[in-house]
Amino acid sequence: MELYRIRYLLLLFAAVNARAQMDMSGTGMQMNAAGMYLMDQASGTDMNAQSWSPPMFMPRAGSWNLMLMGQAFVVDTQQSGARGGDKFYSANWFMGGAEHTVGSGSFLVQVMLSLDPATITDRRYPELFQTGETAYGRPIVDGQHPHNFLMGLGFHYARPIGENATLHLYFAPVGDPALGPVAYPHRSSAAEMPQAPLSHHWQDSTHIADDVVTVGLKYRWMRLEASGFYGTEPNENRWTISQGAINSWSTRYSVFPSKNWIAQVSVGRIARPERQEPGDVLRSTASVQYSRPVGDDAWSSSLIWGRNHDTFTHRDLNSYLAESVLPVPGHNFLTGRIELVDKDELFSDDLALEQNLDRTAGSTFRIGAYTVGLTHDLAHLFHAVETGIGANVTTYSLPAAIKPYYGDRPFGVNVFLRLRLKPAHS
User: Fold this and answer.
1) Cα separation of 287 and 306, whole Å?
2) pLDDT exceeding 90 applies to what percent of the chain?
3) Pairing mode, if any, of strands 222-230 and 248-258?
4) Per-residue b/e over 257-273, b at no fewer than 16 CB within 10 Å?
5) What's the Cα-to-Cα distance from 287 to each of 42, 80, 265, rounded to whole Å?
6) Please, where are the H alpha helices in 152-264?
7) How far apart are CA 158 and CA 364, in angstroms?
8) Whole-number mean pLDDT of the chain?
9) C-alpha atoms less than 13 angstroms from C-alpha of 249 in its C-beta half-sphere
10) Percentage helix, strand, coil, to 5, in the chain?
11) Strands (E), 11-50
12) Which residues lie below 8 Å from residue 2, measured CB to CB, with a gap of 6+?
């Protein structure tokens, strides 16, 4: 998207600036209801349960309310078998936001950055049975791609309509359309897990899409959204923006009956998501998220289903995920994730092997992944950073036909250091 369009939007919102503000109790900030609604957005227009308090600084700069967040994992991965890999790397992201009252509404600009392109070498980190996108022109198999340097650049405007309704407009040269649950880097139930879910490309992979336009209407405890966006996944040069004409669409219906719960169903058509594949993807998702404060932290859990229908192969591939993070005494976090995912790309980098397996065992394999882990918070090590050390272990279930390539009992281990900006009130 050309820079002059971005400047035009900023000037348009600034031209109608006003000072209808109200105090937020206990924070020293001034923000109207629309502004508080916008500050609940996680990635794009995704939302976690309202009872979960994300770790963020919320200072003021004049009449602007600011938001600063950041998290990094420094990880050593060890995996079994001929297809497993070992690597030392860092997965990380940083977000900044600025909100300002505009008449009875509010304007928010968000920027999200990641140094993954520099801290994850060879354009991937090892993860058994993971698929999606490419590295050096070949499909990534048993590995996860890094995020782009520019993970998000979005502009929000929200305005009350009557007593109980709010109109929400969102434009992002790089952003997250209304499709799927909160993406895993921002999901409360995944906050202590450095690795991506195997179901990422079935549920929330559009969290870095280009030229996103979304219109949403919130009424009381429900919200309906519709998005248009450029559907092709980012290219391998993670330092650039891969823009294109809007060719994909999605719609999402969400409900949040209480501060502890949020649920959504969504559908979308993604045009040519994988650059090396000819078909479009029809994606359907449903999810329920729960968060309940436990002391200064929260117990957060998610149940997620996602299905991809490939218009070229006519295959329906399903994914199921359950994950949770539970604070336990002694500054510890117990984590768990269970997944069942239908995979049809595990042997796509070896055409002869893929064709042989297709004849003898079919082309799709259901993989189970079972992860348990523990993070110990080093409570007072640094004043401004929440520092934790942790580890998780993943075991897998797989069809007998592919055990000769992965082993009878494949597993992976991640040992990590977690660094997260600490809120000023902590």
Assistant:
1) 9
2) 73
3) antiparallel
4) eeebbbbbebbbbbbbb
5) 16, 32, 7
6) 200-203
7) 44
8) 89
9) 4
10) 15, 55, 35
11) 23-24, 29-30
12) none
Look up residue 278 and give its two tokens.
């000819």
Structure tokens at 235: 């290219």
Torsional sign, CA 144, 149, 155, 160: positive
Amino acid occupying residue 154: G
Kindly tell me the sign of the dihedral angle through the C-alpha atoms of 223, 179, 256, 29. negative
Token pair listed for 320: 């199921």
**Phi/psi-derived region of residue 418, left when phi > 0, alpha when psi is between -120 and 50, beta in every other case:** beta
Predicted confidence (pLDDT) at residue 1 exceeds the cutoff of 50: no
In the chain, the N- to C-terminal Cα span, in Å, equals 39
Q: How far apart are CA 263 and CA 126, in angstroms?
A: 32
**What is the DSSP code string of 201-224?**
HHHTGGGSEEEEEEEEEEETTEEE
**Residue 381 three-state SS:** coil
Give residue for tokens 């040069």: 237
The amino acid at 177: P
Q: Worst-scoring range by mean pLDDT, 53-57, 182-186, 230-234?
A: 53-57
Mean pLDDT of 284-308: 96
Q: What is the pLDDT of residues 78-101, one digit of tens each?
A: 999 999 999 999 999 999 999 999
Using alpha carbons only, how large is the chain's radius of gyration in Å? 21
CB 349 within 8 A of CB 330: no
Helix (H, G, I), strand (E, B) or coil at 358: helix
